[in-house]
Amino acid sequence: MTYPAVPGTVYFVGAGPGAPDLITVRGRDLLAQADLILYADSLVDAALPAAYARPDAQIVGSVELHLAQIVDLMCQAAQAGQVVVRLHSGDPALYGAIHEQMAALDEAGIPYEVVPGVTAAFALAARLGVELTVPELVQTIILTRPAGRTPLPEREQLAGLAAHGASLAIYLGITRLPQVIETLLASGAYTSDTPVVVAYRVTWPDEVILSGTLGDIVPKVKAAGFTRQALILVSEALNPIHKRTDRPTSRLYDPTYSHRLRRRVVE
């Protein structure tokens, strides 16, 4: 069943991490019904809107537009009764810059809906074949970014977050990798042997994934020349030594563990 688009509505759609077929079914359905598709062409493959859009749909890249221009295009189309898709990379809720767009649409009285997408951290975990929440090893995932041109609230500085030793996905930090690694090591929760993966354009045709430790990853990344669109993933869960059958497992499928839908097995 096709998800029905409502004329006069703006849909913020998560495009996923890169591969066109990793968009959600709902996102694909909305692209197929859109009159106007505004997409972040610096981060979203042009093949994605082209693959699903109607032949007569207007497709506009937003890389050279500022906020007011983007809002004006969306408002004009929606007020004319058109279906608008604002296509963002990954998941719109994470570094998607949709907050200010939604505020402007609220002010203009334009209805909108957000359609989630697959963010790069989870696409990378899938690519690596790992779970980022391993029983009795790590149960928390932190998605963050280092301070840069956009500052961080003091309570969210990387040094404080690193102290938890959680699975840590660091976006928008590849150009500051040496400082990021130094901060992580200074936290005391990670060591130079802690596994780290740096992935460039995960799921894109030119994807590159570098594995290492906090002690050796910097020269690997420098040699690869990554300067943008790379994710840093730090977690003890990345260590293959933990993927074995003799370690603690989840209680979810433990035969001796009962819950409201299953009785435990008594030997």
TrEMBL record:
Task: State the family named in the UniProt similarity comment for this chain.
Answer: Belongs to the precorrin methyltransferase family.
User: CDD domains from the entry?
Assistant: Precorrin-4_C11-MT (cd11641)
- Per the UniProt record, one Pfam family is TP_methylase
Q: Which GO terms are recorded in the biological process aspect for this UniProt protein?
A: cobalamin biosynthetic process; methylation
Q: Which UniProt keywords apply?
A: Cobalamin biosynthesis, Methyltransferase, S-adenosyl-L-methionine, Transferase
Top-level taxon of the source organism: Bacteria
Which is one GO molecular function term here? Answer: precorrin-4 C11-methyltransferase activity
Species: Chloroflexus aggregans
Pathway-wise, it operates in: Cofactor biosynthesis; adenosylcobalamin biosynthesis
Where does the record place the Tetrapyrrole methylase domain?
A: 9-217
Q: What name does this protein carry? A: Precorrin-4 C(11)-methyltransferase
The answer on whether this UniProt entry bears the keyword S-adenosyl-L-methionine reads: yes
